[in-house]
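G., before I forget:
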Amino acid sequence: MNRFLIPLGAFVLLAIVLAVGLKHSPEKGIIASPLIGKPAPAFTTTLLNDTNAKFDSGQFKGRWTLFNVWGTWCFECRNEHQALLDIAKRKEVRVVGLDWKDEDPTATQWLQDLGNPFDVIATDHDGRIAVDWGVYGAPETFLINPQGVIVHKYVGALTMEAWEREFLPRINAKS
Amino acid sequence: MTRYFVTSILVCLLAASPVSYAVDTTQMPTPELQKRYLGLTHELRCMQCQNEAIADSPVSLAADLRRQVAEMLNAGKSDDDVRNYMVARYGNFILFRPPVSAKTIWVWATPGILLLIGAAVAVRITKQRAALVDQDNEPVEEDIRSS
């Protein structure tokens, strides 16, 4: 009896280690952001197609904001676009876009073709804002509360199911 | 003619040397900064490709992170400043060598624990065998099985 106990124990231990490893595997693409619960990183940048107008991260304050990082080179962004349009239509939050490492004319054409869900579109031509926000792959979407604090981050193409499951409860709980 | 031929072959070989394939051609102003830059870019993970260091990755995010490292070093920041900056934004996952903390201690402790278990097993088997030597000439496995 005793001689089976040790291998069995070793097996259970190994199984636990592997299960934990699988559960936390970054292969699923979800790497928890350390920025959750922190104030939105500060930046000031120009708006899409308007180098005179600025967007400042201070403008996040005052109401709930969905901050969506996208680019026309990003395949998944095309897949999530309809969800963004639908969310914008519901008017529950302000939708701010960050056009990441993109060309203004290409981005404008994309919005003309697919529709524009954004209230404001800030630009990040050289990718510095994205680095400061810990962005590693578009699309990424941050939920920012009226105090300007990041409440949630969603990686990958947004869907209405994700919106109702992960975003709405947070907005309703805290507003 | 021959000399021209040999020279052109040499030029081709030189052009094909690994240096020309380097993803990162950044030159820091001093050798000391260059050394620290190379060290840091090799220990930070490219978050997009995940199993490559930002030093080796051709994706644009890795280039942006390398630029960030270079700028911070040029501004006189320490290696730890750079690491902390990256961890504050991307989490411990960006470090190939995670820091020792309550949450990660098992990563560091497990190999040691396994080594101790292995050593204990080895000592036990050796002792058992040593105890048997004087008593009989039967194969050791037989004795262990019957004990």
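Chain B touches chain A through 15 residues (CB under 8 Å). Chain B has a mean pLDDT of 82.

More on Monday.
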